[in-house]
Automatic annotation (TrEMBL):
Keywords: ATP-binding, Coiled coil, Kinase, Membrane, Nucleotide-binding, Phosphoprotein, Transferase, Transmembrane, Transmembrane helix, Two-component regulatory system
Protein name in the entry: histidine kinase
Transmembrane residue ranges: 12-35, 191-213
SUPFAM superfamilies recorded: ATPase domain of HSP90 chaperone/DNA topoisomerase II/histidine kinase (SSF55874)
Organism of provenance: Rhizobium metallidurans
Gene Ontology, cellular component aspect: membrane
Highest taxon listed in the record's lineage: Bacteria
MF-aspect GO terms: ATP binding; phosphorelay sensor kinase activity; protein dimerization activity
Length: 464
């Protein structure tokens, strides 16, 4: 439902304030009305009891034995007339009736009602049961026609007349008393009681609201923080998944490159040392060496060719081995690794490399050392083979675990689009660096070529 979805979008504090406000107002009115009714009943009962006590003290002495009289004798009726019309009591009483248990009026200041019989009401039954009954209302009983003509609420009181020696009710006095000022007093009492309940309810509700609003703000703040954490974790999860896919691709590519590298090593062994060894083997089986007529000079010349072929084969095998096997770099520092690569390259090619190495002495993992060595080695080899070794330079930096190595030459450059995807050199470097979570960049042009690798500590921790 639309209103329910709209309600759920509100904060907990707003929901509490609206719901609590409605319930508090309803409760305030209910308690106020109940309290007012209780006070009103207490005031009326107290007023009725006071008047009944006063009437009882004035009227009871002049009443005859109600057990033996059907109607009051003329002397008793005259005494009641005088007692009920004089003094303070006469000012307050509007009407007066003396009832018998069967509903007959034994006496009344309204003479036309004396001796008449009316239906017994619940109020009259309660009074004959021994209870004082007091009501503040418009007169509604059949015998109260003149009281209704006044048009104002009156206090109607039913007071049981008790037999002196048994304490049993033998008659009931009913009288209507004026209630001047009682209505205003009850209205003021009602207003004051409802105002007091409203004030206490408001204080209680506002105190609870302050606590709830503070808790709601805390919950909203924690919810915002939780959403931020969830968003951050989702972002990290996405990055982790992307890195995982990247590493999977790098692993697959590395496997392919290793296979290609093995094929290249096999091709180098076949095209190089194997050819020289095969040539030497053929020369060893030549007739010139086996012929006894061959002169010593010719035999020495033939053996010299054989030794030369075998020496070239051994030299090429050593060269291939040097490319396959890393020197001992486990205990070497970052600076020593770069300098060893540069020195080996200068010794092998006879060229000069300008090296600029800056390190803060941070620890470098073995995997990263191997990557730095291979990157620098392969980049310098490419600079020599494809750039002619012109103005070769290496710039290496290690700061707070951040590694950056840049190899540059001033050759003619090349077109990167012409590099085959299966090229072992550049592709191998890229995959090796990608596997550690680093970045590999190539910039080439007429002014030469720059090959750069860079790794951050966080990237390396995630990759390892």
């Amino acid at each position: 439902m639309h209103w329910l979805s709209h309600w759920n979008t509100r904060s907990l504090a707003a929901q509490f304030f609206i719901t609590g406000g409605v319930l508090s107002v309803g409760t305030m009115f209910a308690i106020g009305m109940l309290l007012t009714q209780v006070i009103e009943d207490a005031v009326i009962r107290h007023t009725g009891a006071t008047t009944a006590l006063y009437v009882d003290s004035v009227v009871a002495p002049v009443l005859p034995d109600m057990q033996t009289e059907d109607l009051l004798e003329e002397g008793s009726a005259q005494a009641l007339d005088e007692a009920l019309t004089q003094g303070e009591l006469g000012k307050r009483l509007v009407s007066f009736k003396l009832w018998r248990r069967d509903g007959t009026i034994l006496y009344s200041n309204e003479k036309d009602l004396v001796g008449r019989k009316f239906p017994v009401t619940d109020k009259l039954r309660q009074a004959f049961a021994g209870s004082l009954v007091a009501r503040y209302e418009q007169a509604s009983d059949p015998e109260s026609e003149k009281e209704r003509e006044l048009g104002n609420p009156l206090i109607e009181i039913y007071n049981p007349v008790l037999q002196p020696w048994s304490g049993q009710p033998v008659a009931v006095l009913e009288f209507y008393e004026t209630a001047e000022g009682l209505g205003d007093s009850l209205t003021r009492t009602r207003l004051w009681s409802m105002a007091s309940v409203a004030l206490l309810t408001a204080i209680f509700f506002l105190a609870l609201s302050a606590i709830v609003f503070r808790g709601s703000r805390l919950i909203e703040r924690q919810r915002g923080d939780l959403k931020g954490k969830v968003a951050e974790l989702s972002e990290l999860l996405g990055e982790n998944q992307a890195l995982q896919r990247r590493l999977q691709r790098a692993s697959q590519r590395a496997a392919e490159l290793n296979e290609s590298y093995l094929r290249r090593v096999g091709a180098d062994l076949h095209d190089g040392p194997a050819q020289h060894i095969a040539y030497a083997s053929l020369r060893l089986d030549s007739e010139m060496l086996a012929d006894s007529h061959t002169t010593t000079e010719e035999r020495e010349k033939e053996l010299s060719w054989i030794r030369s072929s075998l020496a070239e084969a051994m030299a090429e095998i050593r060269t291939i081995c040097r490319g396959l096997v890393l020197p001992q770099i486990d205990g070497a520092s970052f600076t020593e690794i770069v300098e060893r690569v540069v020195e080996a390259h200068e010794a092998r090619t006879g060229t000069t490399v300008a090296a600029d190495v800056d390190s803060d002495g941070s620890e470098v993992s073995t995997a990263l050392k191997s990557c730095i060595y291979r990157f620098t080695q392969e980049a310098l080899n490419n600079a020599y083979r494809h750039g002619g070794g012109v103005r070769q330079s290496v710039e290496a930096r290690l700061r707070d675990g951040k590694v950056r190595v840049e190899v540059r030459d001033r050759g003619d450059g090349f077109d990167p689009s012409e590099v085959r995807p299966t090229s072992i050199g550049l592709a191998g470097l890229r995959e090796r660096i990608d596997s550690l979570g680093g970045r590999f960049e190539i910039t080439t042009g007429e002014d030469g070529t720059v090959v750069t690798m860079s790794l951050e500590p966080v990237e390396m921790e995630e990759a390892l």
